[in-house]
């Protein structure tokens, strides 16, 4: 399978615009989340070692490491999303000319749909974490890069919403009621955390930008 995370920006955009199912919304959401993490890492780097921010040195170093790891994890999810969608397509192509074949196809399809829901679900978790980690950057980050903190927050929230859409569309076709209920419950909690964190970050930035 092609490694979409290693395409140039121009190649990825062109590949997304092709009349093919992948890369699609899930992959675009992963890129969005990776950019959110990258901007957060950048702001931490622009704060570390700068005069006037010495007391936040260790926190900025921690954030740089955390956001670097989050960025790579999300880029890995980009390829996982494409792979998961292909798995659903492969299951749909399986023969169904006998009762046994139909049952095997049904089982494979349900397995593939669960995987297709789990990948964007992990992106949703990553987006939540990014937004939570933006609070110290909003509070203590380099004042010349506050717009980048805001940009990261907007991107992380967008990545969450994209992930949510991709989780929900797959859950509609999954027959395992316990699996669906559990995912919906956690997704609702994640959304509450994302929206609350996003609001806190934006409020902190608004106050700092007044100074």
Tell me what you see in this structure.
The protein is built from six helices and no strands. The chain has 211 residues and is mostly helical. The protein has helices at 9-17, 25-47, 57-92, 99-140, 146-171, 177-210. The protein has one domain (23-210): Four Helix Bundle (Hemerythrin (Met), subunit A). Helix content is 81%, strand content 0%. It starts with 8 loop residues before the first helix and ends with a helix.
List the helices and strands and how they pair.
Layout: H1 9-17, H2 25-47, H3 57-92, H4 99-140, H5 146-171, H6 177-210
Short description:
With 211 residues, the protein is mainly α.
Annotation keywords:
Four Helix Bundle (Hemerythrin (Met), subunit A); elongated; 211 residues; mainly alpha; 6 helices
Could you give the count of β-strands?
Answer: 0
CATH architecture group name: Up-down Bundle
The span between the termini is 51 Å
CATH class: Mainly Alpha
How many DSSP helices? 6
Q: Kindly identify the CATH topology.
A: Four Helix Bundle (Hemerythrin (Met), subunit A)
Give average pLDDT, whole number: 94
Helical/strand content category: mainly alpha
* Number of separate domains: 1
Low-confidence stretches: none
- The CATH superfamily turns out to be Formiminotetrahydrofolate cyclodeaminase monomer, up-and-down helical bundle
Report the major sheet: none
Which descriptor suits the 3D outline?
elongated
Fraction in beta strands:
under 5%
Rg, alpha carbons = 20 Å
How much helix is in the residues?
A: over 70%
Q: Could you give the order of the helices and strands? A: HHHHHH
